[in-house]
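Worked example 3 (structure in, sequence out).
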């Protein structure tokens, strides 16, 4: 016996399939449609009698062009069926009858105390990282049309919809399916890093507007029901990106591209923050004629009036009795100045958060707790999640690039008594450890290098520039691809000294260095490499300066290709357990960055199940996972 939900899903799939069939007849002709139906019937027969011969003989007579169209037809059907299933699955999860309502309060006999939940909430740090695998990327226009179909299915299931509404929705769905069929799913031109950045920013913008505010509100409400008052300034979710920073194997990702992408991200983030402030200005209309505000807020307004006389002259009298609107108008002016690189803006997102917390404390003290926890906290949580950069950029470069540059720099040192490339790994480790401790610059001003080496050196100066301009959230991690030993991590740390990114003597560690262990052999060696890396005094000092925090990235793609799926996953599992123990021995907090996702060959699969399958003690509240394509 099937449930009403199953019946509704089948009905939607059947209707979408019929609409796709109508599209095939309109666009490709009745003969093509009949061929697709014939092949479908022959394929279904295999499930009954196991005889494949009839299907193989029919397909043998199909020409290449027709075969490609048939593949598109069947893949289009499966995409439509998946869309319907996703829409109905969301309905299942939010249907109180299923007992799976999101944000449901925990059972009263839960053994997890409110204090433990509060501590977990403070340490929670989930970061999906968008990478730029073009072979796995869906064109934005295709993704948009599929989303339109999902929206139409949801609208059709609305109990308030009548026959006329459903007929109109069906027409719109048929139009969209026609457009999907006529849209090329493949890019005919290789996307540039700027194109890839535009794709990622489009996704991030959708997440900021349509997903993250509600998701974080549900998270906060779940904590509140469990007896924990959620702090709106916590950052349980944030985003990362490799687009514009992943130089490994892509010569088109230059330092100039990194600068341009970060500038675009920053502008989008600030535009979104301004849009959100505009919404708050329209909503927070509380008047002192009805309820007073805090003395702290009054002092804040007085200070802002002096610093921003033009805003005061324009809005001070108009909003004189509406202190929250006036304070938000001052904040809006600062955001505009930040976006336009004018004086008087915010240094980073924390400045905006501090200003908003003045309003929040006033509301909480003035019987406005519901307002503070409502529109103000929704905005706070979202702006904290995206900051002023939308997503923190990781820089990734192959280990060999750093060694090639160091070899060139050591050649130019007066009195050099060795050739860097001839040193074995143990000698390199000793040399680079001493170099990191000494703080000696290796690249004199005005040094002339060939384009490849010069670009690698320029990259570190670019990171410094962006951290100064955009803030510390712009770039946090420098990932070293194909890391096989300790010297592969020490090399970029030494190069970063010239740009002022790190200094053991001065107590500076503005970025962290992340070894990426990709192959089965590298995964086997990873615990020993981390152990010896953290035993290098100068490097251990850098880790201490970053809060005793070390990030390690585990590669799924190469280990899958070389060793196979089962061997890869078992090797990664063993590595995680050993890395956990090494970090604990050194008193270091470990974050594992999982380079997984997409196809099975890249370690793809349900993310939630992958997290739950990790060894005990590996996750300490933080996790990074790539979202490929």
């Amino acid at each position: 016996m099937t449930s009403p939900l199953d019946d509704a899903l089948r009905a939607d799939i059947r209707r979408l399939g019929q609409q796709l069939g109508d599209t095939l007849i309109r666009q490709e002709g009745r003969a093509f449609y009949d061929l697709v139906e014939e092949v479908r019937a022959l394929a279904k027969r295999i499930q009954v009698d196991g005889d494949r011969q009839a299907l193989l003989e029919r397909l043998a007579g199909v020409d290449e062009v027709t075969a490609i169209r048939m593949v598109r037809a069947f893949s289009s059907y499966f995409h439509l069926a998946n869309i319907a299933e996703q829409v109905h699955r969301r309905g299942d999860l939010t249907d109180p009858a299923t007992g799976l309502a999101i944000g449901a309060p925990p059972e009263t006999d839960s053994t997890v105390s409110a204090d433990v939940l509060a501590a977990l909430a403070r340490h929670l740090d989930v970061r999906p990282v968008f990478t730029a695998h073009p072979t796995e990327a869906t064109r934005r226009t295709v993704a948009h049309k599929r989303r339109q179909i999902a929206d139409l299915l949801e609208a059709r299931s609305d109990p308030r919809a009548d026959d006329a509404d459903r007929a109109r929705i069906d027409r719109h769905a048929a139009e969209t399916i026609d457009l999907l069929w006529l849209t090329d799913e493949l890019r005919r031109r290789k996307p540039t890093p700027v194109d890839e950045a535009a794709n990622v920013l489009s996704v991030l913008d959708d997440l900021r507007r349509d997903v993250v505010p509600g998701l974080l509100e549900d998270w906060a409400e779940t904590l509140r029901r469990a007896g924990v008052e959620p702090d709106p300034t916590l950052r349980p979710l944030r985003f990362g990106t490799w687009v514009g920073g992943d130089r490994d194997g892509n010569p088109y990702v230059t330092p100039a591209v990194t600068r341009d992408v970060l500038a675009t991200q920053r502008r989008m983030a600030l535009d979104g923050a301004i849009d959100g402030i505009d919404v708050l200005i329209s909503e927070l209309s509380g008047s002192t004629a009805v309820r007073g505000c805090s003395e702290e807020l009054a002092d804040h307004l007085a200070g802002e009036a002096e610093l921003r006389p033009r805003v005061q002259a324009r809005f001070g009298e108009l909003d004189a009795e509406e202190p929250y609107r006036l304070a938000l108008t001052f904040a809006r002016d600062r955001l505009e100045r930040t976006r336009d690189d004018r004086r008087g803006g915010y240094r980073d997102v924390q400045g905006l958060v501090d200003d908003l917390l003045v309003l929040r404390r006033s509301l909480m003290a003035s019987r406005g707790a519901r307002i503070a926890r409502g529109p103000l906290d929704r905005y706070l949580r979202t702006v904290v999640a995206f900051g002023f950069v939308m997503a923190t950029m990781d820089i990734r470069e192959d280990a060999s690039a750093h060694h090639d540059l160091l070899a060139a720099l050591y050649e130019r040192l007066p009195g050099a008594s060795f050739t860097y490339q001839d040193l074995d790994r143990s000698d390199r480790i000793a040399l680079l450890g001493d170099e990191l401790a000494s703080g000696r610059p290796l690249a004199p001003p005005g040094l002339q290098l060939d384009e490849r080496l010069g670009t690698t050196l320029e990259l570190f100066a670019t990171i410094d520039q962006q951290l100064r301009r955009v803030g510390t959230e712009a770039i946090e991690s420098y990932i070293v691809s194909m890391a096989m030993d300790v010297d592969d991590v020490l090399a970029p740390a030494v190069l970063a000294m010239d740009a002022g990114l790190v200094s053991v003597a001065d107590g500076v560690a503005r970025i962290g260095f992340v070894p990426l262990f990709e192959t089965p052999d590298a995964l086997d060696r990873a615990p020993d490499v981390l152990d010896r890396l953290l035993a290098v005094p100068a490097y251990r000092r850098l880790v201490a300066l970053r809060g005793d925090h070390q990030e390690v990235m585990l590669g799924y793609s190469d280990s899958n290709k070389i060793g196979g799926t089962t061997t890869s996953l078992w090797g990664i599992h063993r590595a995680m357990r050993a890395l956990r123990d090494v970090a604990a021995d050194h008193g270091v907090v470990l974050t594992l960055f999982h380079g997984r996702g997409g196809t099975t060959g890249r370690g793809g699969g349900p993310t939630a199940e992958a997290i739950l399958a990790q060894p005990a003690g590996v996750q300490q509240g933080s996790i990074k996972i790539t979202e490929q394509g």
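Notes: The first helix runs from residue 4 to 28. The chain has a mean pLDDT of 88.
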